[in-house]
Write a structure and sequence with these properties.
The chain has about 130 residues and is α+β, with helices and mostly antiparallel strands. It has helices at about 35-40, 55-65, 85-90, 90-100, 105-110, 115-130; strands at about 1-5, 5-15, 20-25, 45-50, 70.
Length: about 130
């Protein structure tokens, strides 16, 4: 667990293609650091992620996979790389899944002190949501 203004925080990284594959990190860890681990051994036509994943290395990895990268540019990027805005709107599927996870009180408040227990509950709730 990470600290953020005196409170403990956690980030959960997930892919829609693998609904039961999660990586849990502390709150202050950058999102881009776990992108390569999430994309390992994955196949797909496109990779749709948020601005926090904007990097040349990730774009090269996605191109090497043979997929299209749908990544909006970070505002600090000097050369703007265009992305498919229509495809980017499909990103709301993963956002809706995380919102469904937050309906479970144990998930939303993170009662578990140990990461392995929290990850087990995340897997359980995700399997329940995935089957419905």
């Amino acid at each position: 667990m990470g600290r953020s203004r005196g409170d403990l925080t956690t980030k959960i990284h997930n892919m829609l293609a693998a609904p039961l594959h999660f990586i849990i990190t502390t709150g202050q860890v950058a999102d881009i650091t776990h992108a390569q681990a999430l994309l390992a051994d994955q196949k797909g036509a496109s990779v749709i992620v948020g601005k926090t994943y904007d990097s040349n290395a990730l774009r090269a990895l996605v191109t090497q996979m043979g997929a299209e990268s749908v990544i909006p540019c970070n505002r600090t990027r000097k050369i703007i790389i265009p992305h498919d805005t229509r495809a980017y709107k499909l990103r709301n599927c993963i956002e809706r899944r995380f919102n469904r996870l937050k309906h479970f009180r144990r998930f939303a408040t993170r009662y578990d002190r140990r990461t392995i227990h929290f990850l087990g509950f995340v897997h359980l709730v995700s399997a329940m949501i995935w089957m419905t």
